[in-house]
Design brief:
CATH architecture: Up-down Bundle
Helix content: over 70%
Distance between the termini: 21 Å
Largest sheet: none
Number of strands: 0
Radius of gyration: 21 Å
CATH class: Mainly Alpha
Shape: globular
CATH topology: Growth Hormone, Chain: A
Number of helices: 14
Strand content: under 5%
Number of domains: 1
CATH superfamily: MFS general substrate transporter like domains
Structural class: mainly alpha
């Protein structure tokens, strides 16, 4: 059977329901994250610096790594449909609590805890959607399906963020900033409730795990099964190398995002006008979204022409060149060009590697291998944020950070992805 094209997959009676859950949820994620970023980094009374922004990234990403060992265990034992329904419902309730705290201007430990909970749940949701996708479409269409799922989700994050920024601008005109952000969070809570209802369109066992593939033991076996996931990847070194390359790429991307936030907040606009900086970030995200779309659209054709392994290697090489645009001069045009090019090549690496990993594993190991994938990638993202925070000035202007990102990418191509090691294996 030939690979299904994009339009055919959109009409796929089962896969389209999964897309709806993912895209709706990630659109609401964008709305949530824009409200949170506005409150933490772009409020007039808060001066953004590299360390505070890096701390924000750590708060967002660390839950992914901390609960990662248990995500795969849960997804391999309980109905993923039920897990997705309950997770979205709990996330809606959590956002109501976050809205109350922000309404009252709370920025302490209590806010950190509830935000950690929200992003921790999000890890379970995205891992469950990724693990369930191969049960709805044939292996010959995994590249296209992944390109649509991941890229559509990323685009909806951008769209949701844009809607959030637009609504906040309207709300701020007649209310104070904290109250505007809390209203946005209540809108996001409603969006998550809608997402939980969309999950019910999937059958209880439609996205796994299948009864005969459920492992024995309880969910407390998380770290044991993480070890099994690593052991499985050792037998499939190309999948392991692809995961490591994707992790480094995402770590570098996080460092570039931090750079862009500081440039827009403190250099390209007056520090006393954070709304202008927020608008600049919105433009950069929109351009990045266009790059994400292009990267996903070209991936299936690139894979068909060069094969998965060579295509990942080519895209990672191109991604290594991209940060150099921002190394020698920092202005908005070069920032936008960097955002577009890094998004194109990075997204093509990601969707191709997702399909590569999925093609190597049966459902018995799928949950735990994707848990390993998530932990590795998100740990790299936290590392990228912390390292760049230590090197970046408050202005965001830096020659060193873009060059280090480029060098890291080239090292990945030369070592992890070299043809003698990163090639087709059964």
């Amino acid at each position: 059977m030939s690979s299904l094209n994009f339009l055919a997959l959109l009409r796929h009676p089962r896969l389209s329901r999964l897309f709806a859950v993912r895209w709706m949820g990630q659109g609401v994620d964008g709305l949530f994250q824009s409200a949170l970023a506005s409150f933490l980094l772009f409020s007039p009374e808060r001066q953004a610096n590299a360390l505070s922004a890096a701390l924000g990234f750590a708060v967002v990403l660390l839950p992914y790594s901390l609960i990662g060992p248990f995500v795969g265990t849960i997804l391999d034992r309980v109905s993923r449909q039920r897990a997705l329904f309950l997770s979205n419902f709990l996330r809606a309730l959590d956002l109501i609590l976050i809205a109350i705290l922000i309404f009252n201007g709370k920025t302490g430990v209590e806010l950190t805890i509830v935000v950690l909970f929200a992003f921790g749940i999000n890890r379970l949701i995205l891992a469950g959607l990724s693990a369930g996708l191969p049960l709805l479409v044939g292996s010959e269409s995994l590249i296209t399906a992944n390109a649509m799922a991941v890229t559509g989700g990323s685009l909806f994050v951008v769209v949701g963020g844009g809607i959030g920024l637009g609504l906040r601008k309207i709300l701020t005109s007649w209310n104070n900033a904290n109250h505007s952000d809390s209203v946005l969070l209540l809108v996001a809570a409603v969006g998550y409730l809608v997402t939980s209802l969309l999950v019910l369109r999937l059958q209880r066992s439609e996205i796994g795990p299948l009864d005969h593939e459920k492992p024995a033991g309880g969910v407390t076996q998380g770290f044991v099964e993480m070890k099994e996931g690593f052991a499985f990847l050792r037998k499939h070194s190309d999948a392991a190398r692809g995961i490591a390359a994707t992790a480094v790429q995402r770590g570098g991307l996080t460092a570039l995002i931090l750079t862009a936030l500081l440039l827009e907040r403190n250099t390209f606009h007056l520090a006393s006008d954070p709304n202008a900086g927020l608008a600049g970030v919105a433009i950069a995200l929109t351009i990045s979204g266009a790059g994400i779309t292009c990267g996903a659209l070209v991936a299936p054709f690139g894979v068909a022409r060069f094969g998965r392994h060579r295509w990942i290697r080519l895209m990672m090489t191109a991604a290594a060149i991209s940060p150099l645009l921002l190394a020698f001069a920092q202005n908005q045009i070069l920032l936008y060009l960097t955002a577009f090019s890094v998004s194109v090549f990075g997204q093509s690496v990601k969707v191709t590697n997702d399909a590569l990993v999925q093609s190597k594993i049966d459902d018995y190991y799928r949950g735990r291998v994707f848990a390993v994938y998530d932990v590795v990638v998100n740990t790299a993202m936290v590392t990228g944020a912390v390292i760049s925070a230590l090197l970046l000035p408050a202005s965001g202007k830096s020659f060193i950070v873009p060059v280090l990102i480029s060098l890291a990418y080239f090292m990945v191509v030369g070592r992890l992805l070299r043809q003698s090691k990163f090639n087709f294996t059964l």
